[in-house]
Amino acid sequence: MHTPTPLAVTFSLRLLAASLAAAAVGSQPVLAQHAAVQQQLVQFDIAAGPLGVALNQFAQDAGIFLGGAGSLTEAKQTAGLRGRYPVEQGLAILLAGTGLEAQRTGPDRYALRQALGAETLAPVTVTGGLAATAATDTFIVDMSASASKTDTALHETPRSISVVTRAQLDARGALSMPEAVQYTAGVTTGGAGFDPRFDQISIRGFSVNTKGDYLDGLRQTPGIYATPRTEPYLLERVDIVKGPMSVLYGQGTPGGLVNRVSKQALDAPLREVMVTGATHDRRQLAFDVADQLNEAGTARFRLTGLTRRGEHDRMIADDRDVLAPVFDFRLGEKTTLTLRGQYIKDETDAGVGTYVDNGRPTSLRISDPDYDHQRQEEYQLGYELTHRYNEALTFSQRLRYADLDMDVRYLDNAGLRPGTRLLDRSAWSVGSKVQSLVVDNNALLRFDTRNVAHKVLVGVDYQWVDWNNRIGYQATGIPPLDLDRPQYGNVSLATPAYD
Which Pfam families match (predicted)? Predict the structure, then answer.
């Protein structure tokens, strides 16, 4: 038997090592290709429901073969999957809580099986692509679509954004938009003092009442006097975006914008009724119901309403009636249509100012609470259509028509009568109407280059507004107000005719 010399042994080992290294290098492109496929992000929009149906849709969207006995998915449900995920991660989320797992058997091939030794856990709902508008019961969220018109994580958005969630609104008991946002950094409310007629909100010192007021990403347009108002109970969240936003939203204010996000239709049933009472004879009834309209879960609805009667300080009315239906339809695997309506009827007082006696403010109202009123009625109708052509390209269109009517009358200070404590008053009336149509079209392209994910948004929006404002005035036939012994309820004057 011949024993190799040390040189020969060394040479043989080096040759073997070199051969193994060459084989490893030669296999790297194939392994890297499979790894890249597994890490590629795929857009999913799978509703909660029967597991078998959801897995079939998942396999089609991901372009994979998924096998297994049909009995494995029988009577099992899934919480659904929405967002962009790698195939295996998305599959694991879809199967969470079912006691099943998917085993990879080859390139783009998986087999469904019972999880070995696994304990069945409660389903976990993971919110992905709809997180920017989805319902949440937490104080903190990590997604917003208001600053980029795309669902983007807050920490990836180069903007200062504050989000007031539904949980925060409930905890604060917010009854108006100023109350909803008044604790937000950089935001001030009530710049003109107490005034229940309008939602006075400023960001970084700039008023956003006229050009920074948005609902579901579409501007709410005011007239000269009439201004849209929003009931906080109808909202899922409020996004406050600080800084100029004209690149995405057109002409606006340097301070930023407030985007009110409406409540969405839900997969799970919801039944909520609230009855509240408070000082100043305030009574309020609110309800919020939601459910699916068919067994397949492709049609859903939500109906939110509120009625309130009461007053603020100084006998200022605070009455409101609200109704907001939402219908959501999945028109196939790639198209969704959401129909929205909203009706708000408000009544408060127009003349809420008090008399200033020799530079000293008093609590004495100049107008008469029984004569004074500001009645506003508004309805909105709109839709949101989204179609996903493929994993990369998505088109969306939002449209809303709004009609706002306001009827106002009040008494104003016309000066003291010489040598007396009697204050003359003049009567004013205002009729204001605003009609608007807003539409926003967007095409979103997603693609990856190496380890960088890109979003390219291209869009065009259109806005039409028509408003008219009428004013009436009368200076005679009005009883004066005795500043020492004020009496109210003695004004029988008709509403001044419009000029």
Answer: Plug (PF07715), STN (PF07660)
